Amino acid sequence: MDMPLAHDNGRDINPAEHSTWDEIASTAETQPIKLIYICGYGRSGSTLLDILLGQQRSMFGGGEIIGLSQHVYLNDEYCACGERVRSCSFWQPVVEQWHAQQPPRFIEEFRRAQWKVGTVFSPRRWFGSRDLETFSSHTARLMRLMSDRSGKAAIVDSSKWPGRGMALAKIKGIDLHVIHLVRDVRGVAWSLSKAYEADASKGLQRVIVPKPLLYSAARWAYVNLAAEWLCRKVGPSKYLRIRYEDVAADPAGSLQRIASLAGIALDPRDYEAGEFNPVHQVAGNRLRMQKGIRVKSDDSWRKQMPEGKRRLLTRACGFLLARYGYPMGV
């Protein structure tokens, strides 16, 4: 299979002409990789937003890219295209080239470093460490391969963890834009209180066990506060806070806000079709394995959640619910 080309001021660069990917990264350094990073807590609509962004001709929706080396490629899990990832027309050549000329245990070393730097919020653990250097060099190379093969103006990573966002912000050659995606904690906790059986072909790699409401509330608050810290670090010109409910109510307007943040022009035809189809999201919610997706808000908790549980969650997370513009008396 032909190797993808990088670009240097309009001149094609063939990786075969260079001895290492460090040389390629150095040559393409004047053209940073534009990365849109979706940050927030689980069950907040990150997979849906990744799919919507990935429908745009200017963006490639990669899904939860953190999972590629953690478990997806190791277990040969399903890509959103319906193929196993080792047979996928996009990921198979990307990962093969990523592995090329690397020591035998490089993936284990990278996986360990990624786990250390990509936790929810632990800057002291990785700041200035060898783990960060390992994560940075291999992630930059992976993102360059993804960018070159997709040919898109931006890559979308919906891995969510604020710690990963902090590490990505330190990588030279990546132009990071953070989307802090939030959802009403009552909807999140209600979704997490449900159990699901494993079904690999439908994107469920393991059994999903129900989570206690207060556990979900504590984690929701913790992760969103860490996401706020990340946003302050990258600066106001590089982040946008957006609510899941607003994405569902006005997907076109939400996409335009994100595109404006990243400096990308959208073609209106890309989000007026009504139905959306995932392409190559490598990991994420089971939604990525569905076709003909129509955007609608999941607000079943409003009717199904007992009033006492709603009041409990409102009291526990009221300070953040108010900050994010959610009504208290529901």
Characterise this structure.
InterPro entries: Gal/GlcNAc/GalNAc_ST, P-loop_NTPase. Its EC number is 2.8.2.-. Keywords: Transferase. One of its GO terms (molecular function) is transferase activity. This is Sulfotransferase family protein. This protein has 330 residues and is of the alpha/beta class. The protein has a single domain, classed as P-loop containing nucleotide triphosphate hydrolases (Rossmann fold, 3-Layer(aba) Sandwich), CATH 3.40.50. Helices cover 45% and strands 11% of the residues. It contains 14 helices and 7 strands. The strands form 2 sheets. The protein has a 5-stranded parallel beta sheet, with helices on both faces. Strands 1-2 form a two-stranded antiparallel ribbon. A hairpin with a 2-residue loop joins β1 (6-8) and β2 (11-13). α4 (91-99) packs across α7 (130-150), α5 packs across α7 (130-150) and α10 runs parallel beside α14 (307-323). The longest helix has 22 residues, at 213-234. Mean pLDDT is 87; it is low at 1-28.
